[in-house]
Amino acid sequence: MTALSNDAESSQKSAPLTDGVKEALSVTLRGCEELIPQADWVKKLSQSETSGQPLRIKLGLDPTAPDIHIGHTVVLNKMRQLQDLGHQVIFLIGDFTSLIGDPSGRNNTRPPLTPEQIKANAETYYKQASLVLDPAKTEIRYNSEWSLPLGSMGMIQLAAKYTVARMMERNDFHQRFTAGTPISVHEFLYPLMQGYDSVALKSDLELGGTDQKFNLLMGRHLQAEYGQEPQCILTMPLLEGLDGVDKMSKSKNNYIGITEEANSMFAKVLSISDTLMWRWYTLLSFKSIAHIESLKQAIAEGANPKDAKVALAKEITARFHSAAAADAAEQDFINRSKGGVPDEIPEVSLSGAPLGIAALLKSAGLAPSSSEANRLIEGGGVRVDGAVISDKGLKLPAGTFVVQVGKRKFARVALA
């Protein structure tokens, strides 16, 4: 757990914290990168406890892609933890800001999405977020609600509340300007509009990744400009992917999609290193810090780390599927590790017997190309009816075969 900073300690000296506020602060700090300003958040928590009024906690996501992976759920997990404390969470879909395109971390202008693309992506976002958040206690908003009515006059008035000099302090803008890379004027509107979301929603806390810090601070600035009590901001780290090196990304192929089937999800979690497992426990598990520390202690005393990893894999798989699916995925993994064939595997019908093994793997969807199929054969990663195939020139006659690639890909191929 992150230690209390000096400003929080000062708050404690002036007004001793109740057990409830201490617990809420502990939950807030778990796994976070920064909480700014921490003393203000302690004050908000204390006021909320005294008044019984829940705090308004905001997370905004632009629907730039139709699906999310578990790396995206790090901030959603934090939202759920705060939601379970009784606070009001607001899941904001940036249908208006998506039209601008977030310049965060970009070295060139981000192509804006079309309204049609945004609508299609937004339809899946809340459904997927509901696998983490409690839908009955989540306020869903779209920032077009207040951004469109703002109009040209309101946009000019909003733009007057921030200077170009301060905008250019932002790292990505500064780097692009120094390098002579074009910056479009509309990109300056993005942090302003994201900040205005906080004004419209009267948020007490806004969450985001570490790459969103400038935009989150803009919300604090604009709330003060509009006479509101400024929100606090909470940044969460970017989750390392399966390789334990790079951040989780589809382009790096080190991700777990939250809509992946249960068996694949379970097996992928088990594939991570013992070291990375604790990082994932902190950022992805809903188990208490005390429970996680007890697991670490048990392993230090000789328990098998795999048992803790299995528990994590089952928790994550159950969250996005069900407890029964997680149990079945565990059994499936056990069967595969013993060389067994899963109960349910895809069935594929092919013609052209006798058919070369590389062509069969490609046609059955077990390899993306014949060259990749040959590489897999050379590596000893292909089995037919349990036998390892080493001959790239093998041709299979008509019949039905169980074909396996690696540990997790199977197909029952009927070849005619």
TrEMBL record:
Subcellular localization(s) per the UniProt record: Cytoplasm
Major location (coarse): cytoplasm
GO molecular function, one term: tyrosine-tRNA ligase activity
Residues spanned by motif 'HIGH' region: 63-72
Record: residues binding ATP: 250
UniProt entry tagged with the keyword RNA-binding: yes
A UniProt-annotated Pfam family: tRNA-synt_1b
CDD domains listed in its UniProt record: S4 (cd00165), TyrRS_core (cd00805)
Keywords of this entry: Aminoacyl-tRNA synthetase, ATP-binding, Cytoplasm, Ligase, Nucleotide-binding, Protein biosynthesis, RNA-binding
Ranges spanned by the short sequence motif 'KMSKS' region, renumbered to the chain: 247-251
Domain of life: Bacteria
Catalytic activity, EC: 6.1.1.1
Catalyzed chemical reaction(s): tRNA(Tyr) + L-tyrosine + ATP = L-tyrosyl-tRNA(Tyr) + AMP + diphosphate + H(+)
Entry-linked Gene3D superfamilies: HUPs, RNA-binding S4 domain, Tyrosyl-Transfer RNA Synthetase
Domain (RNA-binding S4): residue spans on this chain: 355-416
InterPro entries tied to this protein: aa-tRNA-synth_I_CS (IPR001412), aa-tRNA-synth_Ic (IPR002305), Rossmann-like_a/b/a_fold (IPR014729), S4_RNA-bd (IPR002942), S4_RNA-bd_sf (IPR036986), Tyr-tRNA-ligase (IPR002307), Tyr-tRNA-ligase_bac-type (IPR024088), Tyr-tRNA-ligase_bac_2 (IPR024108)
Keyword Protein biosynthesis among UniProt keywords: yes
HAMAP family for the chain: Tyr_tRNA_synth_type2
Biological function: Catalyzes the attachment of tyrosine to tRNA(Tyr) in a two-step reaction: tyrosine is first activated by ATP to form Tyr-AMP and then transferred to the acceptor end of tRNA(Tyr).
NCBIfam families xrefs: tyrS
Annotated protein name in UniProt: Tyrosine--tRNA ligase
Organism per entry: Hydrogenophaga laconesensis
Lineage: Bacteria, Pseudomonadati, Pseudomonadota, Betaproteobacteria, Burkholderiales
Protein encoded by which gene: tyrS
